[in-house]
Amino acid sequence: MEDYRSRADAQSLGGDGLLANRPGRAAVSLAMVVSCFTMASQAEPRLDVLELSSRALKSNPLGDPVTRRVAVFTPDQATDGIPLPIVYYLPGFGGSSESAIKDPARWIKTTEELVKAGTPVIIAVVDAKTRWGGSQYLNSTAQGNYADYVCDEVVPLVERRYGIAPGATNRIIAGHSSGGFGALRLGMMRPKLFGGVVALSPDSYFEISHRYLVTAPGVTNISPADLKALVMSPPGTPLPKDGDLNYALALSAAYAPRGRWHPSEFDWLCDAHGQVREDVWRRWLDNDPLVMVQKNRHAFRATQAIYVEGPTEDAYKANLGARKIYEVLRTRPARCTFYEPIGKHSDHVPERLERGIAWVFGRLQNPVNPEK
User: Fold this and answer.
1) DSSP letter for each residue of 13-59
2) In the chain, what's the furthest Cα-to-Cα distance?
3) Domain 1-372: CATH class, spelled out
4) Is 209 within 8 Å of 203 (Cβ atoms)?
5) Between vectors from CA 268 to CA 262 and to CA 272, what angle results, nearest 5°?
6) What's the pTM value of the predicted model, to 2 decimals?
7) DSSP label of 246
8) Among residues 276, 87, 266, 108, which one has the least CA distance to residue 169?
9) What is the pLDDT of residues 88-141, one digit of tens each?
10) Domain ranges in the chain?
């Protein structure tokens, strides 16, 4: 659940075009290897590792791995043949399913806590990491088709394996930070697929949370020649040590690709003189979940449940974006709530996830914001 984002104002190791509906993609044949790691006893939750060779990521322009692993945590109830709801979890920037596979204890605990709360679910943790750090879970000619990968390949793979309870109301997309952004975006893109969204500290309200990048020295000082050399460097080339630059590279690949005739290339935020390119910045804003819900009254369906939150001391102001998204959605048919726990961006992510899942499935009517 970690977000390994590094920024100039908080160098820390912390908590972690629209896509058309293509239902036919769900039937693609995927290579799958299943490894089961039974934790302690049969009565406890289990970690399964599913491996697939992705068609969506084949020949991706960054040369990133096509074969990925999904970490699936199943409660004991899943062994009784009872179809259970499922949560697809999108890790924050720099994170992937591999950390859950290497250190499953916290995920096992989350699965156990949800069972105790009367909300047994299967949790699938996704790997959508790229060379630059994270894909933002979007399709892009500069990085690959990660929205297709999650929706058209991971979802069918997992649900064939576990016999998930049918219907979108039993399927949640959730995530923290960049993963929270991905949950909102995929929830909007695929409303028939995901009945619930849990967005913890989601990247949003870019004018507040991301605008600093257009003046960050690592972003403004890089020359066009050095940027081109970096983008065209072979896979495995070490990333720059500047966290802001790395983050801007990843977001530019997601938000400002140059198109199919320029694979791996994207438009940079600043010109050769270090001045912001407002046309490129507007392309970033077009990807902002807050801007999207403000412009599109049909961003979410009435049948969906949307849980957004952000802590009081969020260094990236994600609580401000989450609150504004709620203020827009509360006037619309979809069931929506906002919660602002006390803490920082990456504090208590497992407990926050549990709270959001419980709310979506009706075990928690409305969370009560703590006294500030």
Assistant:
1) -----PPPP-GGGGG----EEEEEEE-SSTTS-EEEEEEEE-STTTT
2) 64
3) alpha beta
4) yes
5) 115
6) 0.88
7) H
8) 87
9) 999 999 999 999 999 999 999 999 999 999 999 999 999 999 999 999 999 999
10) 1-372
